[in-house]
Structures are given as structure tokens and as C-alpha cells.
Amino acid sequence: MQTKSKPQPHSPAALRPLGAHMSTSGGFTTAVEQSALVEATAVQIFTKSQLRWQASPITAGEAKAFREIVAASPLRFVCAHDSYLINLAATSEEIREKSVTSLAHELERADLLGCVCLVMHPGAPKEDPKEVGIRRIVEGLRHVLKATAGLRIRIALENTAGQGSTLGVTFAEIAAMIRGVGGDPRLGVCLDSCHAFASGYELRTPQGVTAMVDEFAHEIGLERLIMLHLNDSKKEFGSRIDRHEHIGKGCIGETGFRNVLREPRLRGIPGIIETPKDDRKDKELWEDRANLELLRKLEAG
User: Fold this and answer.
1) What span, in angstroms and rounded, lies between the C-alpha atoms of 125 and 104?
2) For the chain, which residues make up each domain, given as ranges?
3) Rg of the Cα trace of the chain?
4) Calpha distance 99→29 (Å, rounded)
5) Which helix (H) or strand (E) holds 192?
6) Tens of pLDDT along 98-145?
7) What is the CATH number of domain 17-300?
8) Which of 10, 64, 105, 202 has the fewest CB atoms within 10 Å, i.e. is most exposed?
């Protein structure tokens, strides 16, 4: 998004960009202001309500103000997450059409704000076979990529925990989606630690993390790994239940995050936490700060 001056060794900025998903309530610049309060060097936002199809246009003034405040901040990585309503694998043709339109629109919005990528959940076909769901996702992605061909922003397909009929549980499924659209370079991946652990990737041992990264490299290719979602898991290994927990307080634990953060092939990959948010703003930011401080400590040794 912009070039930052070289960080000094041992400073927080010398490590991978780390930050949190931040609210844009009150305006997009609010997320940057909140990030500064927790000493973040990365941030993730929604560009619209995640629970509604409709969205108010982003004005040129709003986009300019956001880009300028980011450029003046310590942020080195800015991304967006798509709406929870989007489901390219849906059984309903109407929902699939709405999803394609909405995803293309959200890419345009995120690009306008200067985001590196838009994270998206691949989708769920409900009672239909996963092969049918993957085929629908591929078709939807083709339409979206064609409609936004002039944009630089990338799509980051997020791995899932496997709850219900969600697709993207294995790296092979994500790889099939990418192959289906001809390996378009604008397609990348967001690797979520909670989802990986819940779906059966063992993070609590160095060997388990090595095996996970080996599989990712073989099936997808590490060049497509854009970012990490660093979330602990409320549920046990292989539960296939998506429930995020604060870093070190869930079933992955501090040992698991130490393994992930110190895996050589994951060094430097930006990380975003999506840990539980308290209703009180002061408590929420304190929790974000504590989670990020712990991650820096585990990475630094």
C-alpha cells in the first residue's frame, strides 16, 4: 500500500506485521486510531456491514482520509474481510448471484481504501456434494475476477474449520478452487490457526506445524500465502467447530503459537487476530493489546 522506513532491529515493527480486526464504527479512520492504541502494525476491517447486502458508497473524501492516515501510521499491512452473507457455493441461484455481485463490489471498496487483499470464506453447499460446491465457487470466482480485472487487490481464500458443509477445510480443496480459475495470480490464501487446528492440523508440536506447512506448500504453494489469522481455539483438536479464543487461553495454547510463529517458512507473514471482543471499548482494546504483546513475545523468544 505504501513504503515504510526500515524498522530498527528488535523493535515491534522489525517483526512480522501484527494487528487486529478493528471496528470502523464512526468512520474508516477509527480503525487506524484504534490500531495505534494497541501498537499494531497491521489491521483488518469490514468495508460495510457484514450482515447486510446493501452498502453506502465510499466517498472520495473518505477513501483519501483513510489512505492518508494509514500512510502516516505504523501500519504496514491493511486488509479487509468480506460479508458473512457471501456464499459462492450456495444451493440457491439467487444467493449465488447476489454473492458474486457483492464480492465484486467489496473488492472495489477494499481497493479504493488501499487494502492488500479481501479475505473471504469459500462457501457452503449444504446438502449438495462438495464437488458441486467447489464447481460453483470456481464459476463465481471467474465472474468476480473478470468483473474486477482492472484492480490490483487480491482475494485471500480462508481455510475453514469444517463446521457444517463449509468448504476449504483442507488445502487440497482450496487448491482445487485456485486451479479451477486457471491459477489466477490474484488468488491467494489466508491461513487461520483456529480453523486449521479444529479441522485436524496439529499445531501443538513443531512436527505438526512442519507437516501442515509442507502440505500447504505441496498443494497450494507458499507464494500464495498472503496472511495469517492468529486465533486460539475454544474447542479441542479436530472438533470441526469454529470458536475463537484469546491467544494462549484456548486448546492451541502458547506452545502452539510459538511453533507457528517460529516456523521459518511463515516468518514475516502478516498476522491478524480475531479474538473475542468485549462490549466495553476500553476492555476490548486492552484485550487486543494483551493478545498482540503475547504473540510478539512468543515470536521473539
Assistant:
1) 20
2) 17-300
3) 18
4) 27
5) strand 187-192
6) 999 999 999 999 999 999 999 999 999 999 999 999 999 999 999 999
7) 3.20.20.150
8) 10
